[in-house]
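input
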Amino acid sequence: MAYKFKLQALLKVREFKENNLKIELGRIVQDRESTNARIEQINKDIDEGYRAQNELMNNDITGNELQFFPYYLRGKKDDMERTVRKLAEVETALQKKLQELAVARGESKLLENMRANDFEKFKKDLEKKQHAQVEELFIMRAGRVEKGEES
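output
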């Protein structure tokens, strides 16, 4: 008699959901890392813009060249603001996904515990049946020995 957990299909669905959430969480973490890298790059670009402006101020420079830097730096700062807002959105999504994963993991763990308890009950019932069969054989054999029918 083989063991069969009645809620095995549900357990597989819950584990599948949990794995999908882990994959989505990985994507969000990658997005966070790329956004952080983008912020670092923008900061480097802004620093480079200020450095280049200072270098050009020491040399002969035309008015058109001088007008470039405020627009360039304003564009970089606007990009930085957008990127920081995106990072905040990514962090919010990350926290939400972590909560979803915790709930999904709890559901899976509950079913796994139910399966373990059910399996233990199955084993005990099986052992009782086997023990009863062995006792029955001993009783039958003892009855034959008393009658002198030992084989």
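quick obs: The helical segments are 8-58, 63-147.
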